[in-house]
Amino acid sequence: MPLVQEFVGIAKSVGVPLHVWAGSNGCVAGSMAFTANYESLAARAEGTAKLGSAKGWWETVRKFREYAVSSEPDNIYAYVRGGTANAEIPLGTVIQQNVFQLNATGGDFLAAIKWMNEFADLTKSITGVDANIINTIYGALGRIGMFAGYANAAQIDEARAKLIANAEWFPKFLEGGKFAIPGTIMQRHVVKIA
User: Do the beta carbons of residue 3 and residue 178 sit within 8 Å?
Assistant: First the structure.
């Protein structure tokens, strides 16, 4: 955590909105993610340049790598629905991520996005919680999904109870399976730690 705090402090000092997440349910134990929301690729390039020239950044990266067992390539997601650049996210926020790889042979991107919007609308009408819809524009292309934020795990439990009690929800959930490559549907939680 001291190195995580260093990353956040350095990023904050140069105006980069860095968030750090601990992987939870559905993640490999010990997983962490570093995220930042930018309004454009140009804004991301500007932020990357600021970090690269910030005092202590590269030394902290070097120190942090000593603790990394593995890493994944960077992914850049575009919001199809929702999303806010530079949003303040409170510590302890839990993001439920539901993602899958679009079936290239039978997956219709626009039909999948239409279903996701309908599914997000239905879920929001039942729970009051909205979801952002995303797709990758860099990284593992063809990945689409929904991210919904909760104040804590208890709020997720309440939402799940409402969803299970609703006769429309599960059939709507199952409709989405036709858009995914089998075995790629992933639901997981990440928790904001810095």
Answer: no
What are 114's two structure tokens? 């239409």
| Span 62-121, pLDDT tens digits | 999 998 888 888 899 999 999 877 778 999 999 999 999 998 766 689 999 999 999 999
Whether 37 and 84 have beta carbons less than 8 Å apart is answered as yes
Domain parsing of the chain, residue ranges = 2-65, 76-192
CA dist 99 and 143 (Å) reads 7
DSSP-assigned letters across all residues of 47-112: HHHHHHHSTTHHHHHHHHHTT-S------EEEEEE---TT----TT-EEEEEEEEB-TTT--HHHH
Whole-prediction pTM: 0.88
Q: Read off the tokens for 193.
A: 């730690």
What are the residues facing 34 on neighbouring strands? 20
d(CA 156, CA 121): 17
Structure tokens at 156: 């997720």
The fold for domain 76-192 equals Alpha-Beta Plaits (3.30.70)
